[in-house]
Amino acid sequence: MKYRVAVLGAGSWGTALAQVLAENGHDVRLWSHRASQVNEINQKHTNERYLPKHQLPKTIIAYSDMAKAVSDVDAVLFVVPTKAIRSVCQELVEVLQTKPVIIHASKGLEQGTHKRISEVLAEEIPAEKRQAIAVLSGPSHAEEVARHDITTITAASTEADAAKFVQTLFLNHYFRIYTNPDVIGVEMGAALKNIIAIGAGAIHGLGFGDNAKAAIMTRGLAEISRLGVAMGANPLTFIGLSGVGDLIVTCTSIHSRNWRTGNLLGQGHELSEVLNNMGMVVEGVQTTRAAKELAETMGIEMPITQTIYEVLYEHKNINEAATEIMLRDGKKENEFH
User: Fold this and answer.
1) Binding residues
2) Residue 36, exposed/middle/buried by CB under 10 A (0-12, 13-18, 19+)?
3) Cβ atoms < 10 Å from Cβ of 196
4) Could you tell me which residues come within 8 angstroms of residue 259 by beta carbon, excluding any fewer than 6 positions away?
5) Boundaries of each Glycerol-3-phosphate dehydrogenase NAD-dependent C-terminal domain copy (predicted)?
6) Catalytic residues
7) Pairing relationship of beta strands 151-156 and 133-137 according to DSSP bridges
8) In the chain, where are the structural domains located?
9) pLDDT tens, residue by residue, 148-205
10) Angle formed by the axes of helices 117-124 and 85-95, nearest 10°
């Protein structure tokens, strides 16, 4: 069945997901606030800044006018940076005429409130203007999805029909979707793995080997699980696609902006320099602050997150930070608090 879908955000991930939808035969409207980007997509069928040397389906129509982009849609997919979610929601509500399923594929926690993205969506989009809210997340690099590499991710919603709908929208021969009712777990896994990816990149930049990389990923997963379960997540979610799956892909690939950020920090570059040269949002930097503050308010121990926070925000020497975390008091591996 053909559906009308508005994709809000024409970065690399939003563009790749728009391509999946278009190739599945849906009517795809890709919204961007940059008129030059909209013109490029419509005229050249490319998005060189975010997916260089890649040709997009001609059926993807880009808009800078939100009202036109969401006219008569069955679903709205948010793929904008976490810090922009609330303002884009407010712009959407002003022009929304239908009652679509709301989906997001962003990964982070809101600064200050520490809220998950689905919570922000629920606050800003009145119930009478939407159907269910769903999350699309998992181990997925936009560059690989765009070239049809095999990818499996999760559609999560507290309403089973909505998760199934998202699965139907995206499922094809290279893009496989599993459903999951655990929205909290899927969103927390998605957000927190970016923090650990910065640490994994830093380990590489410092010159440490595979043993250290395995250690930070494994102990990082323990931290993610501790905080997520305390918030009400199902612990099994963290050994699934949006947990360990997303952690692996983000902590081991040069495609990951969070990993690249950590790698450059480990090599001695300043954070401001790294972020200025990255060209795209590095979600893990702001998520580190939000997660550290959230963990403190909930009394959850997250030593890796705390250490990365000190490096990012308190200018702690990264070599000293690595040494100090190794010299912490001995613990039982399965200690959960």
Assistant:
1) 9-14, 33-34, 50, 107, 138, 140, 142, 193, 246, 256-258, 281, 283
2) exposed
3) 28
4) 197, 198, 200, 201, 204, 250, 251, 252, 253
5) 182-322
6) 193
7) antiparallel
8) 4-181, 191-326
9) 999 999 999 999 999 999 999 999 999 999 999 999 999 999 999 999 999 999 999 9
10) 30
106 residue type, one letter: S
Question: What are the binding residues for sn-glycerol 3-phosphate?
Answer: 107, 138, 140, 193, 246, 256-258
> For residues 93 and 71, what is the distance between their CA atoms, to the nearest angstrom?
12
Task: Check whether 266 has a pLDDT greater than 70.
Answer: yes
Find, among 51, 109, 55, 105, the residue nearest to 284 by Cα. 109
| The residue type at 32 | S
Fold classification of 4-181 is Rossmann fold (3.40.50)
- Per-residue pLDDT of 56-79, as tens digits, reads 999 999 999 999 999 999 999 999
Architecture of domain 191-326 in this structure: Orthogonal Bundle (1.10)
- Residues 86, 90, 93: CA angle, nearest 5 degrees: 135
d(CA 52, CA 58): 16
Token pair recorded at residue 336: 């959960």
* Secondary structure of 8-77 as H, E, C letters: ECCCHHHHHHHHHHHHCCCEEEEECCCHHHHHHHHHHCCECCCECCCCCCCCCEEECCHHHHCCCCCEEE
Amino acid at 285: V
**Does residue 167 contact residue 184 with C-beta atoms inside 8 Å?**
no
